[in-house]
Structure formats: C-alpha cells, structure tokens
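Appendix B. Raw example, untouched.
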Amino acid sequence: MGQRAYLKVYTRTTEKNYPDGLANSIHMAFSLDGKEFHPFFKNYGILYAKAEILSDDTLLPKGLAKPFLFAAEDTGFYIMAVQTCENGDIDVQAEGKQLCWYTEDFLHFEERGFAQSGVTLPEEMTDCIELDRELALRAADYWMPMRHVETRIPEKVQAGSLEELEQIRAEAVYSDGSKAEKRVRWETGDMDFDRPGEYTVQGRVYQERYPFPLAKGYGDPVIFRWEGKWYFIATNDNRDDIGIYVREADTVSGLFTEDVKEHLILPQDGKRGFVQTFWAPEFHVIGGHLYILFAVSNEKWGPQCHLMKLKENGSIIREEDWEDPVRIRKMDGTFLAEGNKITLDMTYLQTKRASYVVWSYRRDIGTPADTGSMLYIAAIDAAKPWQLTSEPILLTRPLYGWENVAGTINNEGPYAFYRDGKVYLTYSGGSANSYTYAVGLLAADEESDLLDPASWKKNLWPVLSFYSVEGEYGPGHNAFFYNEDGELMISYHAETSPESTLRCDGIRRVHFRKDGSPVFGMSFEEDLDEEIGNVKTKVIVRA
C-alpha cells in the first residue's frame, strides 16, 4: 500500500461575515498526517443544497448539516449530508434522507440528489477518511492557492534587434505544473545589435499590475479595444446611475488616470423614456457593427434591455454618432418583458452554429412573489440583434446557498469567453453591492446547441468570491478582454471592506490550470513572485 493522506468534510459556524447560506455547506480539508488539516478553497464552501422551487415559482433556500464521506464499493467516493433549512433548522420534508454527491477525484462532483437504496452506507458515519496520498495531493493542487514557483528562460536566443529580443518570453511555472508566458524587461545597456557576437543579458519578468481599486463608484465595468484605442464603460454610481458615460485612452492604465475625461453618450431623456437605471452597458461587435447593450427605465422603475448601434465611421465618444436605442423584442414582436417583470445585463455570444443573447430576468421583485433573478438565453439574427429568433430558455437560477445568501436571490451579469472549443459563461450571485457577491461559471462545447440546457454544465461553487483575493469584497459582474500581449484579463467590481457598498473596479489576469480550467482569483503576488522574477540568457546577434 502506498503512502496515505486524509480528507475531511465539515460545515462551519455562522459568523458576522460568513452567513448561514455559506456556513451551512460542505467544506473540505486535507492532511498528510491526520493531525494538521489544511482547508481547501481557503475554507469557503464547496458543495451546497439546492433551494426548493415552490408552487408559486419562488425559492426556499436550504442548508446542509452533519456531512460524512466514504469510499464506494468499486471506485470513487460518496459524500452525504442532512438537508436542513437555510439557517440549519430541521427540514421536515427531508427528515430521514441524505443528500448525496459522487466523486472520483474530489475535483469533479456529481449531484445524486437524495441517496437511493442502491448506495450501501458504511456502518460508521465519519467525516474523515484515509485515502491515497497522490490523489489527495492532486486535489490539493486544485483547491489550494495557485502560486508562481519557477521562472524559465532559454539558455540562448537569437535576436537581430531590440524589437526581436523583446519578443522573447519567460515561462512562469505554477504550483500545479501549469505555465504562462511573461514579458521580460531586458537590460541591454552593453549590447550592440550592429556588432555580431554573443552577449549575456539579464532581465526582469514583467506583469502589468492594476492596483485595486482602479476607480471608485463604478459597477459592471467593461474594457474594450476599438480601432487602436481603449474604452471603459460601466454603471456610473457617481451619477446616480443616470446616463451612459465612456472613457477613451491609448492604454488600459490610461483609462484610470485622474485627468481622464468622461464622455456622455446617452443622457437622461424623458421624451425617449430614458429616465433612470442606466445599468450594465457592454460593447459588442454584432454582425460587423458595434453596439452597446444596456438596461434603462422610464419614469416608472423597471429596467429593460436595450441596444444602440454606432453609426458608420462614428466615434464612440460622440453622442451624435450613436443611433437611437432600441428595446429588445421577442420573436412575436412584443417586448422582452412587461409589467412586473424586469430584464437587464444582456450580453452577446457567437459560435459557428449561431448568435445568442443571454440576460437576467426577474418577476415581482421586492414582493413575497419575488422569483429572484435568473439567466435566460435565446438565439438572434446578427443582422437584426434587437429581436429574438427563438423562445427564451432558462439557463440558471440561484438555487445554491452562495447564490441566494441572506435573501439575495441573484443570477445576473453574464459574460462569455471562448477557449479550447468551449464557451465559458460567467455570471454573478449574491448581493450586487455587498461582500457576498460572487462569480459563478457555466461551460458548454462551442459546437453544441447552446439553447439546450443540457449542453451547459454549471459549477457547484463560485469561482470568485470575497475569499479569493485579500482586500477585495464582493467581486462580481465581470467582463473579459485580451490585452496587447494576448492575455485574457478579467474586469470586475468589488468593495474595499465588508461594510462598504461603494462599488470599485479591478482588473487581473485569468490563469489556466494544467487541466485547462480557468482561475479568476489569483492575486498579483501569486501570479508573479518577484523574488524569482530575475532571468538571464545569452543573446546571439547575427551577422
């Protein structure tokens, strides 16, 4: 028998900044000696009970208690727990039943619902089991904080100019064996590219750092590159969410200088019905044209999805260069929602198969009949993106404790990126201007029918939360962009303390694990350990 390790499951005690919806979930920790345990996922919950969908389509949140785990008879492991009310009280509908998950590696979990009679329970229910050390360490590589552990550079390179040398990248290696290319700032003072020969050159690995907060009072930030310029657009809390404002700069950092100018491109206009909640504007190129998707309300509060198109050869920062906004309609020509229903946070997806929009929908907000916000998807014709070409299909609603924590029943703020044949769709749950806000993840194969809910796999835990990066509370409503080095970057808003409700903006690099899965919460220090950032190589200057 090989070396062994230990894995433990548990719930946590409710605390001031760790409410019932989080505490009453399954947490995990591992140990190599059975004495000192190290929490997975920074001690944030991993597995959650699903809320009950009541007959009026509202949600009744649930919690978990008394988790235990054991090895399956053939292969893999079962994790079980008692379903409770959200606050941990007895759930009379679930008495005598155990919720069940199956896993082979403690990385991927299959929800089995209430345990069936075919599962043979052990004689003793234990919250800690012994297992193969290699298996435990593979799980630890996934769940423990990712960090930069080694920097590699070729021993010799050829370069005929400074421009060629600057194309040489260092390779940063991370704790799970994954890698990322990094720019190097080379010290070339003694080099002469006009004189052939071999030179020893030192350099320092570089990753652009965006200090948090970048801007205060802006929610739902989007960074966008268009015709050689960078643009920043967001919900402008500093203007009471009235009007759409855009910043323009030559660099991403330039969007956040003290003297950067804001350009009003959609003002308040009662005649056109644009009065309040100018929310979540996003740039998207659809059918070769640039649009802004956003939500807005008339005099009566109730945000609804709209889009507006940039005129041919128009300038993003000029109000007169944008066409009149158009409200989104369904297949039959009626508006996407009416009456006590709101729509917002619309985003755009495109695959080889079709074009789609995804948005957040909610009914009866603020009343006992409040359904919570949920994400819907529909197909569109890119030549006429303001009208759906399919019926709306429900993608996800806030069933898990981290999504509906403390009464904040949200699935909102979707945004997509594409990698290795997959579509990744992030979204946010929890409170949009509080520390509980967190980012969830859906994924599907690009070639699949994205209108089929079965094509999508929903992550069971959030991929970004207030436990991810120290000093950033309630990260969410994110977007993505590629910087000039081709790195995928995430923009998001968060708060500076658990008590604050001032939304502030941040940017960081998205990393990818060895298995290809994305990591959104790696801090700058974890991304680049400056103590191992010095490199040296021999540069051969050709004749």
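End of appendix B.
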